Amino acid sequence: MAMIVQRRRAVSVNPLKSSAPLGAALAYLGIEKGVPLFHGAQGCTSFALVLSVRHFKEAIPFQTTAMDEVATVLGSATNLEEALLTVVRRMKPGFVGIATTALVETRGEDSAGDLRLILARNAELADTKIVLASTPDYTGALEDGWASATRAIIENLVEPWSPAIRSFQQINVLPGVHQTPADIDALREIIESFGFYPVILPDISYSLDGHAAENWTATALGGTPLSEISNMARAVHTIAIGEHMRAPADTLGALTGVPVTVFPTLTGLEPSDRLVSLLARLSLKPVPGRLRRQRAQLVDAMLDGHFHFGGRKVAIAADPDLLFSLSQFFVGMGAKIVTAVASTGTGRHLKSVPAETVIVGDLTDLEDGAAAAEADLLVTHSHGRQAEERLGIPLFRVGFPIFDRLGVAHEETVGYRGTRSLIFRVANQLMSENHHAKEEDFRTAIPAVLSSMEEGRHVGGSFANH
Question: What function does the entry list (predicted)?
Fold first, then answer.
């Protein structure tokens, strides 16, 4: 069991975590015709927008209530009302998700009460679904905001179970914020292969997958339809991924009566087996041949890859669920976690991370720990590139944001196929670094050898003659 160490610093020089409001906004982008609205100053939205655009390389429709000094002192209800009316009139969204920021939360405003009054006196907002999640920047990180927004959507939009609701072959899926659009597509394929219809909330597999649309739209391009959200009580089971999605899953279960299974991770052979076994049991169908073949391919990839993972010292910094998932993956492949850094201490299973210590800190802790342990690989997002340069240790990019690589949205990490892909990507990077290191050693050695030969020739040594 890992020991949790909470770092206390006056300032974070190289931050690891992204804010909770950003996590909520990303979840809102997973709703069809959705528009995220940051309730705070313009700077809060601008920073989140820059990170999101750089990561996804897409147009991101973030909006803001644009609080100024007057609103900060006297109250921001007017800003919230004007922003909602402007967004609805100009963008014609089907859904608006509000994420509160530290500015509003620190002042102690009753944003939920303000929203109720605004909706009561503005009939033109009646046709738009509007949800508010409390996501102060000073509490939690990306995972917490994503989970809070998902829970708010469930509480406000899902119809509770009633005797009139018929059960369909439907599976609810609550993915974590660390799932890529490609991961969600892969989960959809696995579930559909057993004859189920998956309803995924939030679903960024179409809105943030990087495709060229035929027509421009001001709102999210894709996402979970509102009609499917309201009918989540029809499902036979709910699958949630990551401990940060346990609270939304429990809320959905209590509201609909649908049984819930929370998977801490879906990366790796055993977690993938558990998912497939659950779907086979629920469907009363045999495992499709395609999945059996993918499992055999994963086992072969593990055999091929373990030569390159075995004994490697890995330093990881990520949000709690991603940290847990990746650390389990690396240890399962024979590597050792020498440094584990979590962005926040809210993760319920940080003690289960296979490392001696889990530090709740930033990328400075990652760099210091990796240097002290002489790590072979750094694993974090793109802000770890400075540590890579200073330490000379290769960086494998994961999480959010990744802005110096293309195709992030299309990389899979879940299921048999995703785990196989992850093994190959990591192993190839390790092999590439070893090749470059050996080549550099060889080039350095050539002048020394030639110098020795020349020296032997001058003194008549036998080395020159050979």
Answer: This protein may play a role in the biosynthesis of the prosthetic group of nitrogenase (FeMo cofactor).
Give the Cα separation of 464 and 405 in Å (integer).
50
Tokens standing for residue 336: 């050792």
What residues does 378 pair with on adjacent strands?
A: 315, 395
3-state secondary structure of 382: helix
Q: Mean pLDDT, 10 residues at a time, over the chain (466 residues)?
A: 84 88 97 96 90 92 90 86 96 96 90 95 95 93 96 96 81 97 97 97 92 82 94 96 97 96 97 98 96 98 94 97 97 96 89 94 95 97 96 96 93 97 96 61 47 46 35
CA 200 and chain centroid, separation: 15
Q: Identify whether the C-beta of residue 184 lies closer than 8 Å to the C-beta of residue 205.
A: yes
CATH numeric code, 170-287: 3.40.50.1980
| CATH architecture for segment(s) 20-157 | 3-Layer(aba) Sandwich (3.40)
Residue type at 362? Answer: D
- Backbone phi and psi for residue 263, each to the nearest 5 degrees, phi listed first: -100, 120
Residue 454 has a pLDDT of 54
Residue 366 and residue 339 in contact, taking contact as beta carbons nearer than 8 Å:
yes
Could you tell me which CATH number the domain at 3-7+310-413 has? 3.40.50.1980
pLDDT per position as a tens digit, 241-274: 999 999 999 999 999 999 999 999 999 999 999 9
pTM value is: 0.91
DSSP output for 278-321: HHHHHHT-PPPHHHHHHHHHHHHHHHHHHHHHTT-EEEEEE-HH
- Say what the pLDDT of residue 434 is: 65
pLDDT of residue 347: 79
Complete DSSP assignment for 47-99? HHHHHHHHHH-S----EE----HHHHHH-SHHHHHHHHHHHHHHH--SEEEEE
CA nearest neighbour of 425 among 439, 444, 405, 443: 405
Q: Cα torsion at 161, 166, 171, 173 (round to 10°)?
A: -30
Residue the block writes with tokens 């240097």: 371
Please tell me the distance from the alpha carbon of residue 326 to that of residue 319, in angstroms, as a whole number: 11
Task: Give the residues across from 199 on adjacent strands.
Answer: 172
Closest-CA residue to 228 (of 149, 142, 129, 133):
129
Q: What is the torsional sign of CA 88, 90, 96, 102?
A: negative
Number of H helices, E strands in the chain: 17, 14
Pairing of strands 336-342, 197-200: unpaired
The answer to whether 267 and 179 have CB atoms below 8 angstroms apart is no
| Domains of the chain by residue range | 3-7+310-413, 20-157, 170-287
